[in-house]
Amino acid sequence: MVNTSLVPVSDGRIVRENFVSNAHTRINLFDVPVTALRTRTRDHLALLLDPIKYLPSEEGHQRDWRGLADFLGFRNQHTAFLATQRSATVKLLEMLGKQVGEVISLAELQRILGIIDRWDVIDDTNQSFLEDAEIFLSAKPMFVELPEKNDTDLDDDINILTNDDAPGLPQKYDAFVLFADEDIEYATELIERLEDSGFK
After folding, report:
1. Which conformational region is residue 173 in: left (phi greater than 0), alpha (psi within -120 to 50 degrees), or beta?
2. What global pTM score does this model have?
3. Distance between first and last Cα of the chain
């Protein structure tokens, strides 16, 4: 049985809180990260959010994946990248799962869908969210939480190729060219070009 109720939050807002309950289970979607969504649920979200909606919500939010991306803080370059993907929604969910810091919960995702006026998406996916949450929580001991990184670590990591790059010392790498006997001319040309470019 699914129980959906409105509950007050400390700052006075009312949010929709979802639980699934049976004889043994009570699941709060605030405890489940968006990474818990299975492929079937992500594909269902994509089916509902990928098509472009031309009429905005009453508050002016776009009512498709673009509104979700905008509300989550994805900027123009990310939105342009997402638009080139086979499924912008699936890629957006994947990017959310890889964000540094706290990953949003399923309840927070539903709250954002409500803000962009996509109650239909919430209604159509709520049961799948609850099923995915139940599976995630029952398997939770198998998951290991990664250590958190702060923003300064992210800035330092941008140009690091290996762990040894971190101190800032120049690194040396060996390169090997494997080729068949009949490709000796191409291999020689490749080596010459690399050496002319400063790679020795």
Report:
1. beta
2. 0.58
3. 68
| Domain ranges within the chain, ordered by starting residue | 34-139
- How many beta carbons lie within 10 A of that of residue 15, not counting itself? 16
For 112-134, give the DSSP string: HHHHTT-HHHHHHHHHHHHHHHH
Write the DSSP assignment of 54-110 as a string of letters.
-SPPTTS--SSHHHHHHHTT--HHHHHHHHTSS-HHHHHHHHHHT-SSPPPBHHHHH
Asked if residue 51 lies in contact with residue 66, where contact means CB atoms within 8 angstroms, the answer is no
Q: How far apart are CA 82 and CA 70, in angstroms?
A: 12
Look up the CATH number of domain 34-139: 1.10.533.10
3-state class percentages of the chain: helix first, strand second, coil last, to nearest 5: 50, 10, 40
The Cα–Cα gap between 30 and 107 comes to 5
The 10s digit of each residue's pLDDT in 164-174 is: 555 555 666 67
Instruction: Considering only residues 23 and 114, tell me which one the structure prediction assigns the higher pLDDT.
Output: 114
Residue in 128, 117, 1 with CA at minimum distance from that of residue 61: 117
Q: Report the alpha-carbon distance of residue 50 to residue 90 in Å, rounded.
A: 9
Tell me the two tokens of residue 45.
């979200």
Find, among 43, 66, 42, the residue nearest to 55 by Cα.
Answer: 66
